[in-house]
Amino acid sequence: MTDGGSPENVAEQLSAAYAHASGLLWSEQAVAEALARITSLAADVIPESSGSGISLLDSAGQRTTSAATDPLVAEADALQYRLEQGPCLTAWNDHLLIRVDNVARDPRWSQWASRATELGIASVLSAPLVADGDTLGAVKVYSSRPHAYTEVSEDLLRRFAELISILLLQLQTAQSTQQFSDNLKDALQSRETIAFARGILMVREQVDADRAYLRLIELAGQRRMPIRAVAAEIVASTARNAEAGHGSF
């Protein structure tokens, strides 16, 4: 850990971290790597910090710690989740930057504070991660020294929180876009399959397009299957017959 450096140097390092992350945003693994880089930078440039990490919700909706720079961070966070109290949860739930100057003497989270003190945590700084009006979690730094953090520290952590929020929002956007793309692809594939099957029925049964589609609906009802599934069966069986050299539909 360093003494933090000048605001200009910190801004340059944040810009570099974002530039590095910008090329990696389109997968969850890549964003996780970018977040690890950012929390490492936070622990390094915010003076007196022993470690840093991010509290988020996992896919099951449970609170979890990501990109922790030290096992102590994950352990202190796990205590908060288990006890349902602590500075990071307050920052997350109340959308506020929380600073704890002396964990051992702070009355706000007595159960967590006593356990955290045993772990050697004396000061905490935590900021909410806010994107598009939603609070996604919180980022925090821990220190083994009381009264470690200042208003300058608060400003630095806010900058990190803004960057992390941007990355998380872009990940959500990427995932939503991919989901939309996958759904659209499935819909188009189903549409193409149904059109192909309808064409097969038009040739096989010598009917027009409307009657062929009605025949698909009839078959789907008889087999109690979705139309796209019946269409896929017709296409597949036709392909098998063609490969076998039967020469007919």
Automatic annotation (TrEMBL):
Pfam family, any one: GAF_2
**Can you name one GO molecular function term for this protein?**
kinase activity
Question: Transmembrane residues, as ranges?
Answer: none
For the ANTAR domain, which residue ranges apply?
Answer: 174-235
- InterPro entries tied to this protein: ANTAR, CheY-like_superfamily, GAF, GAF-like_dom_sf, GAF_ANTAR, WH-like_DNA-bd_sf
Q: Which UniProt keywords are present, listed alphabetically?
A: Kinase, Transcription, Transcription regulation, Transferase
Its name, as the record gives it, is Transcriptional regulator
Annotated organism of origin: Nocardia ninae NBRC 108245
Taxonomy, top ranks, is: Bacteria, Bacillati, Actinomycetota, Actinomycetes, Mycobacteriales
